[in-house]
Structure formats: structure tokens, C-alpha cells
Amino acid sequence: MSTALQWFKSTYSGSEGGECLEVAATPQHIHIRDSKHTPEDAPTLQVTPATWTAFTKFAAR
After folding, report:
1. What distance in Å separates the CA atoms of residue 28 and residue 38, rounded to the nearest whole number?
2. What is the CA 40 to chain-centroid distance, rounded?
3. 48 in Cβ contact with 28 (< 8 Å)
4. Separation between Cα atoms, residue 41 and residue 43, nearest integer Å
5. Per-state percent for the chain, helix, strand, coil, to nearest 5
6. Whole-prediction pTM value?
7. In angstroms, rounded to a whole number, what is the distance separating the alpha carbons of residues 4 and 45?
8. Res. 38: pLDDT tops 80
9. How far apart are CA 46 and CA 28, in angstroms?
10. Strand partners, 11
């Protein structure tokens, strides 16, 4: 049985939409998509949780 991903965007994103990233997590992957696309046609990038953690630590510097 497949469970739909629950997508979240940053609390820093404005309510106007259109220019933010959304993320969803499973135990195996962090899924990333651009909110400009509709959910049905949005290409997604999948990375491991370890890769996501390293990225967010780097970006927070």
C-alpha cells in the first residue's frame, strides 16, 4: 500500500506562493520539489536523510 507524501514549505515562504521549495520525508528519502509546479507535474529530487542534513548544515552557515 502506498502512502501519499505530506509536503511542507518553509515558514519563511510568503503566502503569495510560487517561489519556494517544498519537502516531504520518508524514512529512506527526503523529497524536494519546486512549488511553481502543480503536484501532478512537479519533478522531484530525492536525497538521503544524511545528505539533507549535510546540506542544511552547510546552508545555515
Report:
1. 24
2. 15
3. yes
4. 6
5. 20, 25, 55
6. 0.76
7. 16
8. no
9. 9
10. none
| DSSP H or E segment with residue 47 | strand 44-47
Question: What are the domain boundaries of the chain?
Answer: 20-59
Dihedral through CA 43, CA 36, CA 26, CA 11, nearest 10?
160
Top pLDDT among 10 and 7 is at: 7
Which helix (H) or strand (E) covers residue 53, if one does?
Answer: helix 49-59
**Cell digits for 58?**
552547510
C-alpha cell belonging to residue 32: 524536494
**What whole-number distance in Å separates Cα of residue 3 and Cα of residue 14?**
28
Question: Letter for the amino acid at 61?
Answer: R
Sign of CA dihedral 44, 50, 51, 54: positive
